[in-house]
Every structure is written in C-alpha cells, then in structure tokens.
Design a protein that fits this description.
single chain, 339 residues, Udp-n-acetylmuramoylalanyl-d-glutamate--2,6- Diaminopimelate Ligase, Chain: A, domain 1, UDP N-Acetylglucosamine Acyltransferase, domain 1, 2 domains, 12-stranded mixed sheet, 10-stranded parallel sheet, 13% helix
Amino acid sequence: MADSRFFTVAGPFTLAQLAELSGATLADPTSGSLGLADVASLENAGPEQISFLDNRKYIAAFQASRAGACIVHPDLADRAPAGMALLLSKDPYRTYAKVAQAFYPRPARPAGIAASAVIDPTARLGEGCRVEANVVIGARVEIGARCHIAPNVVIGDGVVIGDDCQIGANSTVQCALIGARVMLYPGVRIGQDGFGFAMGPQGHLKVPQLGRVVIGNDVEVGANTTIDRGAGPDTVIGDGCMIDNLVQIGHNVQLGRGCVVVAQVGISGSTQFGDFVAAGGQAGFAGHLKVGTGARITAQAGVTRDIGAGETVGGTPAVPRLEWLRQAAWLSKMVRNKG
C-alpha cells in the first residue's frame, strides 16, 4: 500500500468496475462483485488488493501471491493460485496502469495565485490555474486552464502553455510553445540558447539562436532535462513523447510522436527521430542524423550514422544488434583465449 502521507487512495472498487474502466475481461463473471481497496505488488498484496503479472520471471511470485485479484494475460490464467480472481488482458501492464490511475487519480489542487508570485500584467492565465510561491511569469505569456505552476518556476516573455499542464518546481521555460497535458518535472530547462558557435583560431563566435522549442500534447519531460531552442528552425518534441531525467536535447532536434528517451541520453543538434523511436539510457547521438520510425537504440550505444526504420542497434559505434552481440562474444572469446 502506498504511504498515505504522500498518496491518497480512492475507491474501493468492485472487480467489475475495474474491468469496465480498464477494458479487461472478467475470467469468472461471478467474481465481479469482489471489492478491492488498493493495488499492490504480487509479493505484498492481500485479499483486498489487486496486482498484475506482466513478466514470466514472476510466475512463482504470482503462484504464491495472496492477492484477491490479479491482472494477467489469458495464456497464464491457468497458473493462478486457487481462489484468486482474475482480470484477463493481452497487455497486463497497460491495464494495470488504468487500474492504478483509478485508485490514485491526480490530486486536484485549488486554484489560486501565491502572494509572492510575480506576474506581468500582460500575461493571461486560464480558469482554475494554481501559481505557487516565487513564480515569475513574463510579458505576453499565455497559460491555459487548470495548469499548476510549482514554486520558483520562471516563464519567459511570450511563452504559450496549453491546458492541464504541470510545470515542476525550479523549472525555467523560454522561447517555447507547449501543448496540452504536458508535465515538466522539477528542474527542467526549456528554450535556452542552443550550443552554436562559429569556431576558429581567432576565437569562437556565438551564433544567435533564433528558433523556438515546440512541444506537442501529452508529453512528459523528466527532472533536470534540458531542451535547447532551435538556431533558426525549431526544436520539436512530438505528441506523446516520454523523456526521462537528465536528458540533453540539442538545438534543431526533432522527435516524432511517441518517442521514449531514457535517462542521460544526449542528442546532438539537428538530429531527427521518426515516430516511436526508443533510446536506451546513456545512448549518444551525433548531429544531423536521421533515426527511422520504430528504431530501437540500446543503452550506451554511440550512434554516428543514420538508423533505418525498425532497426535495432547497439554498441559504439552502433551496429545492428546481432552484429553487436557477435562482436561482444568474439571479444570475450579472445580475452579468455589470451588469458
């Protein structure tokens, strides 16, 4: 059970209600009246809690679980312990996300503006916004309805933010157009100068960065991530992208829809991702590359060439995954033989 000092549980819900809101199917229609008070892990769940199984590595924990109900793929339903009610889903983790959101909806915060906030008189805030202590909002800023601006946020002149956004504490946003339902976690930096210089022996001359950052709808940007504004074209983050903590996105980068970028990834300027690209932790991308739709880049890969749609690559320099595994096996064999 989540710590009640930090999280407030809703419910209880019947299993039938959870099936309806999640799109799952009751394995036994007579179990729909079962009342459930919370979600929990397989190991910690009790008779009034619901859990999920999404990884075959945890079948033993599933079989030993005391959970009153569990979300499971139909292929594994016959492995359930006696007495456990089941919700059947072909995507148990996604179903669990919907169930957990029902038990722990995003808390509603009362609208209001802290006395210490500094808001330019030309800024416009939508209905139901909450602006916390020491926030600074510049001239001509437009903020949509029901946004939450956490303490110490600075929003620069002319920024536009859509409805239902959350801007985390100590974040800064400038030269940016942000869509609806975007979440910026604490310490995010959006729209600062890109890293652009005309280099030479007489000294490095700063190139003015005249673009913007354009962020689509339903995007999350993790804590202490930085997204530089474009040099002339914009830096673009497509709808539904999920960006982890401590990511660096350079000027003119474009991410398509639904990209997933894991912690400590660095994407150099003018690189373009197609839709639904996944980049593992600490992967690095040289500039001016094209990464095709659905490509997958393993953790710590060093990408120095274009990657085709649907391709999976790993290693440094990044090569197709099977080739990377063969290289690793060959190197390991050489080391053993030499020893």
